[in-house]
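WP5 quarterly update. Target: SKU5 similar 12. Source organism: Abeliophyllum distichum. Length: 342 aa.
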Amino acid sequence: MIPGKTYRYRFCNVGMKNSINVRIQGHTMKLVEIEGSHTVQNVYDSLDVHLGQCYSVLVTADQEPKAYYLVASTRFTKTVLTSTATIRYSGSTGPASTELPEAPVGWAWSLNQFRSFRWNLTASAARPNPQGSYHYGQINITRTIKLVNSAGNVDGKLRYAVNGISHENPETPLKLAEYFGVANKVFKYDLLKDEPPTDTEQITISPNVINATFRNFIEIIFENQEKSVQSWHLAGYAFFAVAIEPGRWTPDKRKNYNLIDAISRNTIQVYPKSWAAIMTTLDNAGMWLLRSMLSERQYLGQQLYISVLSPALSLRDEYNIPDNDPLCGIVKDLPMPQPYTA
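Structure tokens (predicted):
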């Protein structure tokens, strides 16, 4: 780095299991972006980055021209794994110090850091409609889906589930089956209910697809009753991460939501014995995956699909499948369905 210059660093956790903490020896980091959203530019000594999450920070080269460690270490693990890189000033005269900066301890610190993240509403191009102008706190919730993750054995094999349903992929891709009008031959909608069953240890293995209403404004609650940190990603949408708290979720917890400037993002962490709440408008037609970002959990069933169909069947809402798209399963030899129109 050149002394006096300011640099942008982007940290993304593309791992398979662990949250990490990142920090730069002798320097602070000004947070400017989370998953595509401008943030209020708070300054941090270190940042927790959970699975699937990305953060952009500004770092000013305002220290003595030496070599400094950039440190990444695992969080919430019995054995802490640490990796380092070296950031050198131009004309550096050697290492600043061999002592690595320490990471914070415990998940309460991480929760408080999450609460400090705020959307920068002055830099995010407000538009003249309720969603685009970011008045999401004034939109009526039309549906609440509460999801509880669990683990158990089925026929002697480990499976992970959401509300007692462990997803498996059928031979025919879900969207193809729906597009060709043969969904009822491939999977059943809404095996997963909006409220978790009393006994979440009872696990059913099946394609996991829920029906959702186009353009509804929904609330999804992730409740983690386990002892490890979870991370969830919603494809096809950004959502407002309005709350994370310890304990169990109840409707009266809504009074603690951030309904003004929560970050618009697509991944949310859930701490042990805690819950997280997100809100989003289902205005993107398609078949969208909501999945655990822990690779083993996703592979062994901790995911579900949200089917959002536009009743207009219009190209304004969803494109046709390309004519040269490879077909498989039970739709392989079927004629192409009537295309959507403008």
